[in-house]
Amino acid sequence: DIESVLPEGVSVVQYADDICLFVTSRVWENCIELLSDGVTALTNHLTTLGLSISESKSVVCPFTRNRRPPLPMTFEMGDAKFQLVEKVKFLGLHMTKSMSWNNHINETQKKCEHHVNIMRAFSNANWGADPSTSILYYKATIRS
């Protein structure tokens, strides 16, 4: 339903109450204009449904190979102001402006290390939790 209210050139990825608008262009001004039109259309549509965009949870992350794109620190789109960030987490994926997997891998590794250390504390070959309990913990925390 959201796709039908967005202007041509603006795409959306959504899951439950998480929404990501994105545009592609070789010209920054076109991206900003399209994204601004998309945010305005989305805001108007959500208002008719009795919903709103949370400015504190919303950000703009330009994905580019260019090291320093000519962008301001905040974006004003419609009545909303959005912070410019270099990395963002969306639906469990940690994405950086250069579209590198390094940040996602590092964050996932940190999360797993914590749970592996907990497993080490309650599991040992001679004492502690039995292997089936350790496997359940592993599946519930590390593989999830």
Question: Could you characterize what this model shows?
Answer:
- The protein has 144 residues and is α+β, with helices and mostly antiparallel strands.
- The protein has four helices and seven strands.
- It has helices at residues 2-5, 28-48, 102-122, 131-141, and strands at residues 11-15, 18-22, 59-60, 74-77, 80-84, 87-90, 93-96.
- A three-stranded mixed sheet has the order 3-5-4. The protein has a two-stranded antiparallel sheet with strand order 1-2. A two-stranded antiparallel ribbon has the order 6-7.
- Helix 3 (102-122) runs antiparallel to helix 4 (131-141).
- The longest helix has 21 residues, at 28-48.
- It is elongated and about 65 Å long.
- It starts with a helix and ends with a helix.
- The mean pLDDT is 86.
- Tell me about the largest β-sheet: 3 strands, mixed
What's the number of domains?
A: 2
In percent, how much strand structure appears in the residues?
A: 15-25%
Tally of extended strands?
7
Reading the helices and strands in chain order gives: HEEHEEEEEHH
Across the major sheet, the strand order is 3-5-4
Distance between the termini: 30 Å
| Share of helix, binned | 25-40%
In terms of structural class, how would the helical and strand content be classed? Answer: alpha+beta
Q: Return Rg in Å.
A: 21 Å
**Overall pLDDT:** 86
Number of helices: 4
Note poorly predicted spans: none
Query: What's the shape?
Result: elongated
